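Check this:
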Amino acid sequence: MKLRKLRNIGIMAHIDAGKTTTTERILFYTGKRHRIGEVDDGDATMDWMTQEQNRGITITSAATTCFWRDHQINIIDTPGHVDFTAEVERSLRVLDGAVAIFDAVGGVEPQSETVWHQADTYNIPRLAYVNKMDRIGADFFAVVEEMKDKLGANPVILSIPIGKEQGFEGTIDLLSMQELHWDHETFGSEMGTAPIREEYRETAAQWRDAMIDALSAYSDELTELYLDGEDIPTDTINHVIREKTLDRSIVPTFCGASLKNVGVQPLLDAVVNYLPAPEEIEAEEGIHAKKETKVPVERTPDGPPVGLVFKIQSEREAGDLCFVRMYSGAVKAGSTVYNADKKKRERVHRLLRMHANRTEAVDSVEAGDIAVFIGFKHAQTGDTIGSEGFPVILERMHFPEPVISVAIEPETLSQRDKLKDVLTILAKEDPTFFSYENEDTGELIISGMGELHLDVLVTRIIDDFKVGARVGQPQVTYRESITQTLEHTESYHRVLGGKENNAEITLRVQPLDRGSGNHFTNEVSKNDLPEELIDAVRRGVEAAFTSGIVFGYPTIDIGVTLVGARYDELTSTPLAFEAAGSMGFDNACSAAGPILLEPIMRVDVMCPADFLGDVINGITMRGGVVQGVESRPAMEHIRAEAPLKQMFGYSTSLRSITQGRGNYAMEFSHFAKASEKQSG
């Protein structure tokens, strides 16, 4: 099979490790930009949202296309802040390979671990790039050791630094055994080679031996050549590196300083040399929408069209931009496709290839491509598009539930409807953003992944959509569950419009393990209860999942089973059974030991050793439990868990305790029973 010269890669890392800066260099060296954009100057191509430029962080996963050595490279630049984990998750879902960037000073930081393990979930081959080698405190080899210890990775070093901190001047390529230097006058676009100087020869020889030793564990041919003392052809080494990168046995590791324009071209070469073409990834597995059986989706342009909508972005003029990864077949502009999740046909008005926020129209896309489809009216993130002849649903993406809420109100009553429309648009774009109206107070409530997440969304509402709005103080989004297993029989009888509506069902509710989610199952035979009435019960129960038991918070981790039912052909209606399902769930759970659950957050704090005791005391006073402390050359890393409610305003407190030198990252860990004070 002839492989397409195509790579779909993501750039992933902890916040401020240099993802966007590295991507800007890639675009410059591949000829996409004629000048280098800088994050600090607010003109980075990939950070095109106004807020990204103002805050200096990446919020949305921007897609761009560039070319290197006759290969097309589709790049997704993902956020590093934990509040935007959904953007990372949906990007990783559609990638074939990734470049993990680590800060040479900070090493493997908390979000680096999170993103790495997300990539493990999707079996993504990776390269590693240790950036910021010019910074004070940079230590390439210490970061490599951290990759082994914290990530369980097997890094194989392919380049080593020449000097470090202010003395960092280039790298040594361990395959060609040459020094690589970059011309500052051309912003690093001209790369020169030179023989390795005497003072670095011994070190370079040691690390080349270490590289060959690591690779020989996977190749008898390499082992024999090495033991015989013969020269090993570079092609042979590259073949083993590629093969073992693709099966995720090793992680080729490089170093550089993107801001100083050092080290980016070897990384581009590695993307082409070692990361997979779309055809080299195993076939996707999907569910046939009609037969409900598993079917393979072969990654070939000749097959039936199958693609995944992994992101939706609303545009005022164009409507919804649906980012689609094609796994099989081809789609032409102007054609009709089938949305297997929504069971609806959609028309493809236009097809675009994205370059950050600029576009290029294309006539067709095929397996392996990432493109934007314009014209879809029903699509949502996670939907599978294809053909009615092969209606396949690909594995769904799973997003964490939002744990923080604020009330939002328009400045004038006349803007309330506009605000509701905007909230609908934002919820369609972002699977971790929800909005609803509080039935008791009439307030509009918005929920998200963290204070920064909601702050960004509120700023978009006000600045981008021009809706005047005020927001309240952040509130914790609690959950409810049950502690007992119980069976309950619910009867429903109403006369509506002169017609009787009767239903009787028996439900069993039971607590499930944390993180299991809510599940409805049916044990009643279709001979005893028609399928449309079983579906009606399911709808009623699933609608009740969101309305709570005692306090009105959404329920989690409850299993509901329909174990019995009685119906009358004349008076039993779907309406009656749906209502019985909803009421039966409420009444059963009310008697099954309901409890209130609060979100517990995983907290990672970095601070100088002088402030360690005060920081730990501060966490403990907020109800936190310290899980461990790890010493680094310049910082102490504290890992803890704490209730979200107690962590509001922590950034101000930490700055005060550490004289502005501490920082922290926080992400959702799990739900636990709320303290008596909160549930009372």
